[in-house]
Specification:
Bound molecules: flavin-adenine dinucleotide
Strand content: 15-25%
Number of strands: 23
Mean pLDDT: 96
Helix content: 25-40%
Structural class: alpha/beta
Low-confidence stretches: none
Oligomer: single chain
Length: about 450
């Protein structure tokens, strides 16, 4: 065999586990057809957060007008894009170096199965004892006339100039985060959704607040509309058509209607690997229907969120399994999630909707930070936190926050939930003061 373990894809679902595994002397190959490091490093989370950061800064400055700060800066998209390129362009090479420096053989090209132990890359065959499919997702493209006029998330993240009128199709996290960015940079933004619900995985009450806030900043939401065709106008704009004589002319359309698995291009039938249209089918050891083939990351058909930290966790789990340091099924810890709107919504552990559905099991408390002096230092209004307690054990098992600090605050809560700390134990922690964490601790219904 050429390799002990051969990974297809080089994203978070691969390198987090492959690099430490290679360092133990295991012979590893990684096949990548596009950019090393995968979507997150090159055309996902990292690029997005660079474009989002100034928005957070401007919002904080805006809140302090007349309280010691005068003047709200504007965002220069072209300069911001240059900053993004400077940080993101090297990621591909960094991603490759990380593998090579760990002693991993990198193979650039498109991988397809020949059989359960053999993969072909541009005509050359490679064999391996174990194969890990970590091929991720790609943007879904609407199948309607004129869809070729639309950009996808990768294109948006490299837009040289922000168009005057941006229309976004979709209501998921990519759609709403990019609507937030385009609006903050000065574009007129329309968001068209097939149904009426946005950000389905986040608490409806906080999503409603984010939506109302975006609407107050001029974002127009067009629900219950399935765009059926698009055409270019004589002056280079795009006209969208839909039922009930819907028509909208815009400068730019972002198709953010979802992400689909790449496994349709892997010739899985040759190896006999089972899959659905949501991803590769795996058991609780991340093993596919073929004994020596595993899957990790977004490529899996799973109900847990398809995110960078879950992909990285799965990759590390597979390394532990391959090394023999575990023979246990994968056990996911409390998972935290965020949507980078302004303010942000973040959550961890048991979700509000699940707690509402099971009132015999869970208690919920919402605290508003409006009266909190420390939160008032930055004059943030409307920040709130919901805490979910298990009635029987009394332990904090879930939390969701709406605020500009939601990402930091939820991260601070992760260990409480994961380690199952009691209220008494939480009371015993000494945080720096003044700080967000200290404020949170004082908000807990303590003994
Ligand atoms: C715009 C955007 C923003 C995001 N923001 C966040 C965020 O803020 N936080 C967060 O946690 N997650 C975010 N995500 C999701 C995150 O990027 C993914 O969950 C993560 O990248 C999954 O890692 P992965 O290794 O499973 O797949 P990927 O990163 O998709 O890597 C798969 C790799 O496999 C390669 N590949 C596919 N098929 C083949 C083949 N046949 N042969 C060879 N190579 C192949 C691809 O080229 C790709 O490089 C975002 C995603 C997008 C698109």
């Amino acid at each position: 065999m050429d390799f002990s373990v051969l990974y297809i894809g080089s994203g978070q679902g691969t390198w987090n586990g492959a690099v430490p595994l290679a360092k133990t002397g295991v012979k590893i190959g990684v096949i990548e057809e596009s950019q090393y490091g995968g979507v997150c490093s090159n055309k996902g989370c990292n690029a997005k957060i660079i474009l989002d950061k100034p928005i957070e800064m401007v919002e904080k400055i805006r809140a302090m007008q007349g309280r010691g700060l005068d003047g709200v800066p504007t965002i220069n998209w072209e300069d911001l894009m240059a900053h993004k390129h400077e940080l993101i362009v090297p990621q591909d090479q960094h991603g490759k170096d990380r593998l090579v420096n760990a002693g991993i053989t990198t193979i650039t090209g498109h991988a397809e199965f020949v059989d359960a132990h053999t993969v072909s890359v541009d005509g050359k065959q490679y064999t391996a004892d174990k194969i890990v499919i970590a091929t991720g997702l790609r943007p879904h493209r609407l199948d309607i006339p004129g869809a070729a006029l639309f950009d996808n998330s990768t294109d948006f993240l490299s837009l040289p100039h922000m168009p005057k009128h941006v229309t976004i199709l979709g209501g998921g996290f990519v759609a709403i985060e990019f609507a937030t960015i385009a609006n903050a940079v000065g574009a007129q933004v329309d968001v068209i959704t097939r149904g009426s619900q946005l950000l389905k995985q986040f608490p409806a009450k906080y999503v409603a607040e984010v939506k109302a806030d975006l609407a107050s900043r001029g974002v127009r939401f067009i629900p219950d509309m399935s765009v059926s065709a698009a055409e270019k106008t004589a002056d280079g704009q795009i006209t969208l058509h839909g039922p009930r004589d819907f028509q909208l002319t815009t400068d730019y359309v972002l198709d953010a209607t979802g992400r689909i698995p790449n496994h349709d291009q892997l010739n899985l039938e040759a190896a006999g690997v089972a899959y659905t249209n949501r991803g590769i089918t795996v058991n609780e050891y991340l093993q596919t229907s073929v004994d020596n083939i595993y899957a990790a990351g977004d490529a899996i058909d799973k109900t847990i969120p398809k995110l960078t930290p879950t992909a990285a966790f799965e990759s590390r789990y597979l390394t532990a399994l391959f090394k023999g340091s575990t023979d246990q099924p994968i056990q996911y810890p409390a998972i935290s999630e965020i949507v980078f709107t302004s303010p942000r919504i973040a959550q961890v552990g048991v979700r509000i909707a699940d707690a509402e559905a099971d009132p015999d099991r869970y208690d919920m408390t919402e605290v508003s930070y409006d009266g909190d002096w420390f939160r008032q230092v930055e004059n943030e209004q409307g920040a709130k936190l919901t805490m979910i307690f298990d009635k029987q054990s009394g332990l904090l098992v879930g939390a969701a926050e709406l605020s500009h600090e939601a990402d930091n605050m939820i991260n601070a809560i992760v260990p409480y939930i994961q380690m199952g700390l009691s209220k008494e134990q939480l009371n015993d922690l000494i945080y720096t003061f003044p700080s967000l964490e200290y404020t949170f601790q004082r908000r807990l219904p303590l003994v």
